[in-house]
Amino acid sequence: MLRPDDLYEIVDESVATGPAATPKVLVHSLDGFMDAGQAGRVTADHLLEVLDHRLLARFDVDLLHDYRARRPEVTFAEDRFTDYTPPHLSLHLVTDDAGVDFLLLEGAEPDNHWDRFAGAIRQLNDLYNVTLTIGVHGIPMGVPHTRPLGLTAHATRPELVTRSNIWDGEMILPASAGTMLQVRLGEAGKDAMGFAVHVPHYLAENRFPGAALALVHAISAATGLLLPSKALLDEAAVTGRLVDEQVEASDDASAVVKALETQYDAAEGSVTRKSLLADSTPSADELGAEVEQFLAELNREDDK
């Protein structure tokens, strides 16, 4: 029977371990579950692009990944296949702008062995003296891109949630490896939390850097880590101008965004904003051909 430590391999043994090691935060972004605007993926990529880091451990994706459910990509070039891109799940040691180390787990969400995966993260957290685990991703919401992005925070202890949420009551949701991990860490008496940034539903399939920017700021606020954000801020400004131009060029798209603004402003300050959930907003068919054209043009601009 597989043990949790069968799922990963330590590739850098020079990092201090055990209770005497400096306490650290672990941030995780797992591809495969909901991630509107590619918010979690862009956050992880950004941190690895702008901060010093090194690989600590890699997971055995052959044990964790369902290749037929989520097939990797391969390039066909004239008469041959090239550039096969396998999935990965990697743990990095990252250093913030103040010289403080933290851990970043990024890559493919496990399809298999979830509880063993949770056990593996607990082992790694103990090994590197992790005191707080944070997950990040994006969720689609019926909100306009012209208003501040909201966040839903959740944690194993109420004291860790320092911002008000739009939710009240309970709901049953499909689990992800990340949400399961938070449950298991909480059961073990460990601190864990997460942030889900609210991405305008009409941009959910696009790279939306403003969502990653909101997550980077949330991580910094929760942990005290000094995380640079200028590159995301600049990219978000460019994307915002592009979206504005596309919206202004379409009467239907402008009407949809205006309606969302009115709805958002009317609900601002309420105890809850349940009406902003994406499934209560117009469907793609209801938005009409003009909005679909707007999204298609936006995708083409992103590919340039």
From TrEMBL:
Pfam families: PAC2. SUPFAM superfamilies: Cgl1923-like. It comes from the Bacteria. InterPro entries: Proteasome_assmbl_chaperone_2 (IPR019151), PSMG2_sf (IPR038389), Rv2714-like (IPR008492). This is PAC2 family protein. It comes from Kribbella speibonae. The lineage of its organism: Bacteria, Bacillati, Actinomycetota, Actinomycetes, Propionibacteriales.
